[in-house]
């Protein structure tokens, strides 16, 4: 998975459906707030750029990335949403905690996508260090939040 080959904020605008009638839920983790705040900023701006109205973008926070699965599950139970985005940043530390959280969130979101009718877009940055997270949240490799917004619009249309 070489993000170096793919700028996260680059996309073909012509291929993005109009989002003016769509409603989105976003669940954001509070850990590493500098990163998750930048992801959220990118996601909201990109949704709005493609027509989503601010009243139709509903944002909830959870303490950490592990809680993103619960937050997303609650949102998928709300029929009003066309797509849900989760945003989090897990940075590797000295213990295996990183692996357990990343696996738990990844499995949990995959399970939601296979069992619920509303698409859940996976905006979890899993990086070795803070700089890699900065690079992917509005830095030199773009913003994962932008990418998630585009994917949410496309999956809502799907
Ligand atoms: C405990 C923990 C650690 C060590 N690191 C992160 C992290 O880098 N990013 C993140 O979003 N959350 C972290 N957490 C918190 C867990 O996701 C979770 O909130 C707690 O284990 C409580 O369930």
TrEMBL record:
Protein's pathway: Cofactor biosynthesis; riboflavin biosynthesis; riboflavin from 2-hydroxy-3-oxobutyl phosphate and 5-amino-6-(D-ribitylamino)uracil: step 1/2
SUPFAM superfamilies, per the entry: Lumazine synthase
Keyword Repressor: no
EC number, UniProt record: 2.5.1.78
Molecular function per GO: 6,7-dimethyl-8-ribityllumazine synthase activity
CDD domains xref list: Lumazine_synthase-I (cd09209)
Enzyme kind, highest EC tier: transferase
Catalytic residues of the enzyme: 97 (proton donor)
One of the record's GO cellular component terms: cytosol
Binding site for (2S)-2-hydroxy-3-oxobutyl phosphate: 94-95, 136
GO biological process, one term: riboflavin biosynthetic process
Keywords, sorted A to Z: Riboflavin biosynthesis, Transferase
Top-rank lineage group of the source organism: Bacteria
Residues holding 5-amino-6-(D-ribitylamino)uracil: 31, 65-67, 89-91, 122
UniProt catalytic activity: (2S)-2-hydroxy-3-oxobutyl phosphate + 5-amino-6-(D-ribitylamino)uracil = 6,7-dimethyl-8-(1-D-ribityl)lumazine + phosphate + 2 H2O + H(+)
NCBIfam families xref list: lumazine-synth
Family of this protein: Belongs to the DMRL synthase family.
Task of the protein: Catalyzes the formation of 6,7-dimethyl-8-ribityllumazine by condensation of 5-amino-6-(D-ribitylamino)uracil with 3,4-dihydroxy-2-butanone 4-phosphate. This is the penultimate step in the biosynthesis of riboflavin.
Name of the protein this chain belongs to: 6,7-dimethyl-8-ribityllumazine synthase
Origin organism lineage: Bacteria, Pseudomonadati, Bacteroidota, Bacteroidia, Bacteroidales
Gene: ribH
